[in-house]
Amino acid sequence: MIQLLLFAFFAGCIYVCYRLTFPKQWREVKVFPGPPTVPLLGTMIPSSQLDVTKKVEEWSRAYGSPFLAKLGPSYLLIVSKAEQIEPILKGTTNLAKGGSYRFVERWLGKGLLTSTNERWRHQRKLLTPTFHYKILHDFLHIMNEQSAVLVDRLRERVKSQAAELQPIDLCPYVTLCALDIICETSMGKRINAQSEPSSPYVQGILEFTEVATYRATHPWTWSDYIFENFSAMGRRFRQSLNTMHQFTNDVIKDREAAREANGAASKDDEPATEEIRKKRALMDFLLEMKQKGDFSSQEVREQVDTFMFEGHDTTASGIEWSCYLFGRNPDIQLRLQEEIDSILGPDRSDFPTADQLNEMKYLECCIKESQRMYPPVPYIERTIIDEPVDIGDGRIIPVGTTVGISIQMVQRDANHFPEPDKFDPDRFIAENCVGRHPFAFCPFSAGPRNCIGQKFAMLEEKTILCHLLRNFTFESVDDEALMEDTMSYMFVLRPTKGVWVKLTLR
Ligand code: HEM
């Protein structure tokens, strides 16, 4: 109760200050249609993430794009048309994120995802070469090894069950595999999440997105001080944060000491041997930058934490939705298995090479179609701070507005994807993409602030799915209606009830 009263007080103050400071902007943005609001509480207080998903869809249908939604004292203009997001995302100004990112900043600080202006430009320029495909290919052995662990764990599970096939929820298996991959590639450290899922670091990471998402949609948790000191969830959250920061700091120290010991700290050229090159983690590139004075220790930690956050739940979500769709579409699954077998041959012990994965064009179409229907990052925000944005049809978004971009609604637009609810990977065969609006498919966002890790993500998704399809056949037990009804929307699109499949060994 006391939290609610405090929230009402602060919200009232913010509301009054805002209206007095930006009277013109308030008038300009109020011309957009939207659902009715309750003073201070806004449009709605969602009781769960599922409500948010459904509400955004419902209102987009009722009020069109864009529509105005209020959450507590702040408001959001939600945009869901490719033609309208283009002018927002493609410019080199208006690169600031929205208010929801504040909640992930407690972990990530001002890393690449959350930084703005010159700080962001500087970081992006420095980090872009690190995601070059030649460097990413050196991570393929890690992706392969961890995928093999995943296959072994699932195989054991399948063998241990009774004669009749029992459905298995793939999500915890895939999430831990993705966590192992991102940890080893970004920090050079094996955390063995797949075999030791209860370590405090792994638990902290697994809980983080859930808590951050909860806070973004529950205004009475918005004050860090009140949340972290006066609620059990907040205290636990603070403890997890300390563990996570401590873990990354320790790895940085160990890695720096090891670099110094083997003399790597004094060289900035190509590593001496292939073996040393293959052992490099993203952190090593950051430590080289630190040595040149481009990053401080804290900035190295912020970037590594950003890769950890952006780089595991997202790929796990992509793989989980893909498996679900393959398990609903046996013909497509069979075609995929034929493609993989024809490229890799009958020997199931070899790991796929980068060239072989590159040859798997149908797998790529399937992953893209899955990302279209279930984008792992379904929603992003921008704050218009530099100049108003003209989104066409005489509509101008004024400075000061926070814009929510529903990637999910953009990608289910029947004008660009006929029968948008149908899983049809052929939409991504090269000739079928000709003439499509460049922003109609944007799972990695678009424009200068698009995902820096998209090649990494595609390589990882392809590798894990290739291992899974080579060894198992899936049959999904849940239908579309249930899955669509229970997906949760915010930082990452999750199947909240899991992806339940019957697995058969091939
Ligand atoms: C399927 C997997 C992935 C999807 C769908 C995805 C999607 C996205 C999206 C939509 C954004 C824009 C966010 C925004 O504007 O607020 C983004 C940004 C970013 N992503 Fe990813 N991502 C994925 C995997 C990864 C991986 C594996 C990494 C790193 C290893 C990564 C690192 C980043 C970073 C650092 C940013 C911030 C870029 C910037 O602002 O300059 N992502 N991602």
Task: Please characterize this protein's 3D structure.
Pfam families: p450 (PF00067). InterPro entries: Cyt_P450, Cyt_P450_CS, Cyt_P450_E_grp-I, Cyt_P450_sf, Cytochrome_P450_Monoox. 44% of the residues are buried. α8 runs antiparallel to α9 (171-187), α9 (171-187) packs antiparallel against α16 (313-328) and α11 packs across α12. This protein has 506 residues and is an alpha+beta fold. Helix content is 55%, strand content 8%. It contains 23 helices and eleven strands. It has a single domain (44-505), classed as Orthogonal Bundle (Cytochrome p450). The chain is globular and about 70 Å long. The strands form four sheets. A four-stranded mixed β-sheet has the order 1-2-7-4. The site of protoporphyrin IX containing FE has 23 residues, from α15, α16 and α22. Protoporphyrin IX containing FE binds at residues 97, 112-113, 124, 306-307, 310-311, 314-315, 318, 376-377, 380, 443-445, 449, 451-453, 456-457.
